[in-house]
Protein 1
Amino acid sequence: MPNRSVFFVSDGTGITAETFGNSILAQFPALPRHVRRPFIETPDKAREVLAEINQVADTEGKRPIVFITLVDDAVRQIITGPDCRGMVLDILQAFVVPLEAEFGVKSNHRVGRFSDAAKSSEYNERIEAINFSLAHDDGQSARNLASADVILLGVSRSGKTPTSLYLAMQHGIKAANYPLIPEDFERHKLPTPLAPYLSKCFGLTIDPERLSQIRNERRPGSKYAALENCRYEVREAEAMMRRSGVSWLSSTHKSIEEIATTILRDIRPDRLIY
Amino acid sequence: MPNRSVFFVSDGTGITAETFGNSILAQFPALPRHVRRPFIETPDKAREVLAEINQVADTEGKRPIVFITLVDDAVRQIITGPDCRGMVLDILQAFVVPLEAEFGVKSNHRVGRFSDAAKSSEYNERIEAINFSLAHDDGQSARNLASADVILLGVSRSGKTPTSLYLAMQHGIKAANYPLIPEDFERHKLPTPLAPYLSKCFGLTIDPERLSQIRNERRPGSKYAALENCRYEVREAEAMMRRSGVSWLSSTHKSIEEIATTILRDIRPDRLIY
């Protein structure tokens, strides 16, 4: 698909259009050029985008793919009408109409779930969760661990911080994270503050080779980064988690999204409607 | 829609199914019960989910809505077949088939874009961006501001931290953030370290009433949280950004997603293919 552009046109942020469009496009080889056009909420703005789509169609000699999430009929019809020389994939309409029939109600043509979200209690919980996760990053504070939904454990640089921030941002989950350090391995015990909360602990481990590589980027040539030391820490951490009955997974070949999804599936925090 | 359950069934994390499904459901009143079933990648697992869907259909007396992203034909056909008593919305198939015709190639039925992502350079850039944003939170470090893609400015608690983490996590953008503090207002000048980077600065402001409310939750009754002080800081910060030609918006009624989308649209960082 060389010379093929993809438009994401939305009356909101376009996040739905882009997330969805990307997962469709991942089914095909090659990476097309992305053109994002968020906040298209008036006919005038829609006509500007239409002109742009048609110009790209002429320049590239192939019709651009256009993923749209446009709720307002007047705005949508400008892009979906006969003047448009793109291939329009209307990801709302394809499913909203059958659901109206199923539910026996008309859809309310609401624009932008993210905007309404800004005032909701759910949104405020997300912001609170982000602040909580930042304050409880890397064992900074053992205070309020009782109010954590999840506590991530693992050796330094095993992926705890990005995962806990993702859990907070995406799911409003209060995720503390707690490092396992050489002192813990000498004592052969999980850190004492965690003892009351084992049921909400989840461990991350990582291949020692990969760990050594990551640590070497930070502190080249240090004992901390040495492969031998990484092997020791990972082996001890895994043994400790196994003895304590803490679930864990290896982050080596997994993305943050996959790690977070697995944790939620296994821990099933009370606050998440699962 | 009381007593109506919605399933999100995916062979990956289910993030696409859920993001998309939620934006569809937001067009209708009431909030249905969510059932997430990620990592359904074998026929056996699919049959378990099928049994669950049918049981819910019987219990609730209404067919559940089932959003699926299942790439493997054998797995998908178990859920989409005649035995399923849910209303299945197959969000990949509806668009993949027309695109195969358009591109003139078969789709590669690839499972899980997030999994492949874990090894890509794009993914590593995201992780690096998260680390950068954490290290440059709240003006902690003026080092490496040259390598920031975006620098967020604003008074304390105007929404800089969640926004910069979101930019990093979602878009791999290195977003530093820098607080505007009373000393800056007395000097009537933006902090000196920012001077070389005005073109990548973006300001966040906030209604003083809302700011006072947020700050009072942290430090009740303090001068920091007093409405009069919040009015002063916001007025000075806005005047300073206006004088320096820095773009800004009010975070008061906007979600993180909307703020981030606006920033990317206006700043257009080099690293983002826009």
Protein 2
Amino acid sequence: MKLDVIINALGQVREQKPLVVNITNYVVMNNTANALLAVGASPIMAHSKEEMAEMMSFSGALVINIGTLDSVWIPRMLFAVERANANKKPVILDPVGCGASTLRTETSRDIARLADSLIIRGNASEIMALAGENAQTKGVDAQDSSSDAIVAARFLVSEYGANVVISGETDHIVTADDQITLSNGDAIMPYVTGMGCTLSALTGAFAAAGDHTGLAAAAVMGVAGEIAAEKSQGPGSFQLQLTDGLYNLTDDELAKRLKIA
Amino acid sequence: MKLDVIINALGQVREQKPLVVNITNYVVMNNTANALLAVGASPIMAHSKEEMAEMMSFSGALVINIGTLDSVWIPRMLFAVERANANKKPVILDPVGCGASTLRTETSRDIARLADSLIIRGNASEIMALAGENAQTKGVDAQDSSSDAIVAARFLVSEYGANVVISGETDHIVTADDQITLSNGDAIMPYVTGMGCTLSALTGAFAAAGDHTGLAAAAVMGVAGEIAAEKSQGPGSFQLQLTDGLYNLTDDELAKRLKIA
Amino acid sequence: MKLDVIINALGQVREQKPLVVNITNYVVMNNTANALLAVGASPIMAHSKEEMAEMMSFSGALVINIGTLDSVWIPRMLFAVERANANKKPVILDPVGCGASTLRTETSRDIARLADSLIIRGNASEIMALAGENAQTKGVDAQDSSSDAIVAARFLVSEYGANVVISGETDHIVTADDQITLSNGDAIMPYVTGMGCTLSALTGAFAAAGDHTGLAAAAVMGVAGEIAAEKSQGPGSFQLQLTDGLYNLTDDELAKRLKIA
């Protein structure tokens, strides 16, 4: 049962306290480090090529987020992926703004191509841009707004051997064997910067602790977000409540609230 | 009537959800992105020259903030201003620390000189440093502490064709045709980092949605700040309440609280 | 009496509002700037070599934190230390992650060697890594988990002429003449990113205002942290409450709560 998998994964993160290396954007570094700590993991925010081989040798996962992409950082990102590969550690790619510039689209694809063990976490637009023309739907599939993104995700699964998390009002976890839908979260979340980035960081923690699908992180984030929204008066208080919510989340709350299909 | 202009401008931001490109300092990236989201706009925090032409082609304004100025970033800032000019988009300059170093003063002037459509938002000291010797008062004008800054702002208006917002205990909006005073806000605000930077970011959102004077952003920030202060126990809770306050601000509150002259 | 020294130091910070230059990591720039403001100091977050001579000429202390160390920044850090020396200003070194990579260990030692007036603030692991083999205990000293770190701190005191603050569940302030233990703080603090970095920043403010031992900053941080924890439901609300707590801290609370030995 999926719920047991998720509850077990959260327990593993809290028990193992995995080290997660994050090469992420300036905007969310603080929030994502705090989210990782709150869920029980140990964030390392490191960006220097000179120390990346050492960092990846004792860490459990690598999260690469291109939110404030700088051409100077691209070779560092690729080198970090190589070191993750060499250490057989999973890579989580957050292709922020993929499609908004050629630099972002091409860098995302370079990273996806290079990573041996890959989870991609993006919103529908980013996932479609990453897949590009290869995954254009023929129209007939498009029964709802997420159909195109799911088709794109399936392409990414086959092209890169990746597992894909499409986050949004509904989250879709797409793997070679499975497709799961999560309907937690809250409408306030798009008004808070870095919610997707936070999910990507958490995905790194759960991957380091053994869940390579992205499912457990998305479930924890969605349920914690739902609880946080109930205690918030706006996006400022939501951010605080989300961190508290990740820290305080119980198995019972997960079981009671999880909307999975 | 100014109040109607302000209320209309806020409605436009919430309706249009304008994209605002921010090349800003590391300290405030998270806060300013969250303030832009809370007020209804869409922040893009991007810094790479390689993608700036694309970013400015579909965005509504460019905010340049030199708070953590790095010589590597200066050519990127100037290139972004050129792209804003080419797309006829307004540029908001926040000359953080202007006067504290030659690098900051000269960079601020280079940006001001280059921008075709410019709003400058700074505190009194920064505005005076930006104007420099050209705007020194003769002493007789100096009836209150803001007189010198207003003289400096008038110089900047004529020299750069800019509109100028001097923020502080009292805000002054200085344009070629008008001079407006706002007396909202709260004494806690100087104890929270990035309040000026947040106003500059909001000024970008309102400029993208049609208000090129800087008035509406300053009014919204001042009133939201006043409401936030009433709900706060210190600068930590103020930051949260300000974000919530920008999100929840109503036309009625604006009308009831606005202190304008 | 130590309490009087601490209370006096807090009063000096609030009265003098010292300027503190911070070359710090991306993750904590916002928090540390806010902590400095909340305690009454004036943060400058500046990183350009081109302006560092000017910045150090009118500032009271330099805080160097290697949390997101980049080889591009190392020469800037060393130049800033030279300018601090030239202006006879204290340097606070936060050797984040010292021992986790050769780059961090060597850079920390280069900075420590260069600074004329130095306070080092780290956790036990960082302090031991910075001291390295030179400070290995012989086993017999190791009566509790902090013994090794205190031996390492004593080595750093003699090697670099530094004062050393080891922060953790118990804080140890080690100087040439004294060794003080503080037992304030709360178990939630390791779940919030940048708590050590915040203490380092505060140490800069207190050093600029006259306390070169690191004691007053650690005492203020510990007591404010303890108060904040009582008002928190998790690490998100703790961060907010800490900022409020630094702002609102009274001499009476300090006197009532300080656990010093």
